[in-house]
Amino acid sequence: MTKNNHIKFPINIAQAQGAYSLELLVGSEQVPLKLLIDTGSSTLAFHATRYSVEKDLNSSTTQIAQCVTYGMGGWAGPMLNSTITYSNGDTEFVIHDASFSIISNEKGKNFLSLDGILGLAYHHLNKGYNLSNYYESKNTNETHTYPWTFSEQIEQTGIDAFKKFLVKFPEKDITPNFTAFAQENISLNKFALSIHRSIVYVPQKNMTLEQKENEDLNKGLFVIGDAEAEKGLYNGSPQVVKVVHDAYYNTKLLSVRVSGFDAFRAPPLDEAHVHNFFSNAIIDSGSSYLMLQQQIYEHIIDSFKAIDPNLLTFINEFKKTQESQSAYCPKNLDLKQWPNLYFTFEGTEENEVTLCCQPDHYWQLDALAPGQAFFTLLNQIPKWPNQSVIGLPIISSYFCVFDRSSGTDGVIKFAEKV
Question: What is the pLDDT of residues 385-418, one digit of tens each?
Fold first, then answer.
């Protein structure tokens, strides 16, 4: 670690367009891979498009398989171990014998145009399954999950069916990469995000990827260690939100208020889902949206309507373009007519913490293309529990520190961003 006990890494939203990526170097060849930074998962997994197990002198195979599903998406593949190098060009750290999976089968496009995912949540979400009994029963030369031999089975039955097949075998908790980072005393078990957008900023036509990456609004910083020592990134003392369960950076959302209206109490998580989802809100850097519990979403929409029924026209027109996969380029969207949104969470000492989401964060302008607008409030999707997913529109409003070392399950600190 540096003398200030922290190190900064550049990140960018340009390539994935709605998520931030960090470049890690994998294996003895130090193959550069761009991975989606996701606080809503714990796996380190990537496509082997550029990485070769055979060329990696540090790699070792295992008897463990992973299969992860994300609602409509998912993937499966073998788990391996090798070196993972974090480098910002000046300073680098190596995680030895790090665990990762190679994405060998996939349902949907899970990581946009990136190589894979870097999950920053806790070990609960990083489960593998030990197939040693399976290989013994087959009585063949196969003894490890790499090379992967399940592609034909998955193509016939699907990812979800393969996951049901795997859960019959002994479960193995895999140490997430960031946890391994902390265990090797490289970090203080903290990291922070300093970002500006939830959808890529494209102010001109025909911009190249390099030009988009060079736009300041598309750049960000991922800070490992004592991020609060980086005084130039924030003002004042951070507000501290309590993490109520160490799975998905679970928080307790108390209420939501639209400026000019009374606060609306956030419904609790439904009892049927408490065992697996733990709380009524998570802080998720892998989400471009604020996906809000249905009653909360409806309250906000009703408040917009009370302010001016014409506001709903913009939202409805945007939804139509999403359905038709066309661009939404409104000519008279005036963000001064739209209210601030306030989200109040449980703090650490029986206090409440209120975070503001301004109109220019829930409406992203020059998003994906010049003149295009993107509405980032999303209604609760079907079959999802009564849980709000607090994604980039709020995270990008603050200097956001995920402090896993504080309290029982950690805290998340939100400071005024410089």
Answer: 999 999 999 999 999 999 988 878 899 999 999 8
Q: Are 357 and 393 in contact (CB under 8 A)?
A: yes
**What tokens were used for 315?**
């939202």
Instruction: In whole angstroms, give the CA distance from residue 348 to residue 290.
Output: 23
CA separation for the pair 141, 135 (Å, rounded): 8
Which range is least confidently modeled, 130-139, 312-321, 394-403?
130-139
CATH number at 8-183:
2.40.70.10
pLDDT of residue 187: 66
The average pLDDT across 172-198 equals 82
* Separation CA 282–CA 252 (nearest Å): 8
At residue 323 the predicted structure's pLDDT band, cuts being 50, 70 and 90, is very high
Domain 229-417 CATH class label: mainly beta
Secondary structure string (H, E, C) spanning the chain: CCCCCEEEEEEECCCCCCCCEEEEEECCCCEEEEEEEECCCCCEEECCCCCCCCCCCCCEEEEEEEEEEECCEEEEEEEEEEEEEEECCCCEEEEEEEEEEECCEEECCCCCCCCEEEECCCHHHCEEEECHHHHHHHCCCCCCCCCCCCHHHHHHHCHHHHHHHHCCCCEEECCCHHHHHHHCCCCCCEEEEECCCCCCECCCCCCCHHHHHCCHHHEEEEEEECHHHCHHHEEEEEEEEECCECCCCEECEEEEEECCCCCEECCCCCHHHHHHHCCCEEECCCCCCEEECHHHHHHHHHHHHHHCCHHHHHHHHHHHHHHCCCCCCCCCCCHHHCCCEEEEEEECCCCEEEEEECHHHHEEECECCCCCEEECEEECCCCCCCCEEECHHHHCCEEEEEECCCCCCCEEEEEEEC
What is the model's pLDDT at position 138? 82
Distance CA 102, CA 185 (A): 27
Looking at residues 64-82, what average pLDDT do you find?
A: 90
The encoded tokens of residue 359 equal: 């109109």
pLDDT of 186:
63
Residue span(s) of the chain under CATH 2.40.70.10 come to 8-183, 229-417
pTM reported for the whole predicted model: 0.91
